[in-house]
Amino acid sequence: MHSKQKTCKTTTTSCRLAPLAAAVAFALTSPVLYADEGKTSKSRVLERVTVVGSQQGAQAIAGSAHFISEEELEKHEYSDINRILREVPGVNLQEEDGYGLRPNIGMRGTGVDRSARITLMEDGVLAAPAPYSAPAAYYFPSAGRMESVEVRKGSSSIKYGPNTTGGALNLISRSIPNQFGGQVDVSQGSDTTRRTHVHVGDSGEQFGWMAETFQYSSDGFKDLDNGGNTGFDTEDYLTKFRVVTGADAKTYQELELKLGAYDEVSNETYLGLTQDDFNATPLRRYAASQRDQMNADQQQYSLRHFAELSPKADVTTTLYRQDFARNWYKLDKVNGNGISSILDDPSTFSAEMAVIKGGDSADDYLSVKANNRGYYSQGVQSVLAMSFDKGGARHDIEYGLRYHEDEIDRFQHVDQYKMDNGTMVLTTAGAPGSESNRVSSATALAAFVQDTIQFDKWTLQPGLRYESIDTERKDYGTSDPGRTGSSLTVTEHSIDVWIPGFGATYQLNDRVRLLAGIHRGFTPPSPGSDADEEKSVNLEAGLRYNDGSMQGEAIAFYNDYSNLLGTCTASSGGGCTIGDQFQAGEVTVQGLEASLSWDLAADSGKAYGLPVRLSYTYTDATFDNGFSSSFGEWGTVEPGDELPYLPQHQLSAGIGVEYSNWRVDLAAKYKDEMRTVAGQGGIPADEKVDSHLVVDLGGDYRFAENSKVYLTVENLLDETYAVARRPAGLRPGKPRTFMLGLKHDF
Asked: Whole-prediction pTM value?
């Protein structure tokens, strides 16, 4: 990888802070002439941990922004982030396990694999286990415990990095209530699926607290050969404690401590089905996946301080730490051949397929890898916000600074099994560290400045982001499990990048607002990679409409990549060395995202509501140059080939009926066919995931002031569909499932 020369050593504090010096100096000396009297301290705190803030806030942002409120989330009581985001245009998704435990999310044509190409946050803090050194999110915050969900794309996401091409996803956790109260939510449904969500909290004059648990489990919807559990069991706990200054304090301050813990045991596999077996029994799981299991635990800690320096300025500082450990024990090879290759060509590997389906084998015929990894992510970030009037314009300026460290420690081994009458029997135990024994780490200094300038009918939003990243990979080798350093190789890289962005809106009339933006897209390379960073220039333009009862927007986007990166992961299907990165060079991604919502009964004078919503995404993504690579999803590429796992058309539609103390909502989501390997023209049958339409139903009845019962049915029409051919064979979507639940507020 090309490394830029620096004028001073990156290890010195003065050098790392130098790019921010001018911005900080300006922050401390700027004239502060405007008092933002209309905002309470609480609302200003909320602005610093959110990326959108509210549905009304999304309308004013100079770029694409979407806010999903708690009320919207309750319509279908989703616990799966994939289903939540289906109604947000411009978001690309690939389902995997059917429950959203490990989602694959991209935006505006970025890759979706393990959500590694977007900036993922919880309460404004990076949430991937190691966002810089290993951004593939094998942990994802429990969507079912969130209070709201926010999405920002395009130039409006310049504040959030390191990934800036597609956008940012921010999950907002439960807030501390203003007074004593809480909720108990219990439900049960198909496949012995159980969900318990309880939260309680209180606030006094100066102290507030909240405690929450979200517990979610299922026996799974897949049928394992010879029987067995294919589900999962997760437990999520969160507490918050807040102290605020007294009423007579000259400076309002707030200190909030957040503590969280997550534990997961899921019987999940990478082993899919051949086309013939999927056609016959789509919910089948082969016998050779019987030992596959993920064990994971995560702890998060954050301490946030907010100070209202004056009615004109405030500063928010957050210290954070996240620890994540997981061991995904799963089938990797059969008779020395990768499971991806076997499922791609079951005729050639007929002997291996027979064993995968439960046929007897010799000793050491099946290789099961213990993908044992530990992660940490920690840092401190601060945002100084100021408001003032100057030259007839209103300025809202934010200066942000973040120092971040993260690490992934791989210490893996492979156990060997034989198949005996449909049961896997251990024949040779592997030595820990004998398969992968390396540590990758990153240290990053990030800074941004963004000004929101309002005058007349205009809102301008120029911004500049700076990232200085140092990465290191220590590979101890598979013959040195004690890490004595006898075979140690160390690879280090540094990168500095400036990321500008500019967005603008113009209020054409009282209903229509025009918007446009341009920004630089950036994704850093992985530690140990010799690839250059991912770079692009991204443009957007469109309009918003709002007449009170109807809201809508249509935005065209154009992403011009000068260098697109692909990363070899086990979840992408392997066929290459895990961790290797590939450069595709020039790529063009363009498309349209549109949404519309209104209430058909809003002006009718009726006592009921008929809310309707539509969203549509069109994406055209092609390689502009030809090349050959060992990356399975690309292979040999010709100019004009389409990128894999990006459907051209996605459509979502919903309609509800709301009356008195009950409501019903129907949501239909269509996903066009997509390629699994780069190409053009007609899609070969063995390189295609077919289009599908999934309909969900949700409804609730409030039988008492504080209590209601609800019923949800996912995949109401029981559509049989595939979600992917990676990493090894076809994977099914979730069949028709129902949940019956009870909620009580107190």
From this structure: 0.93
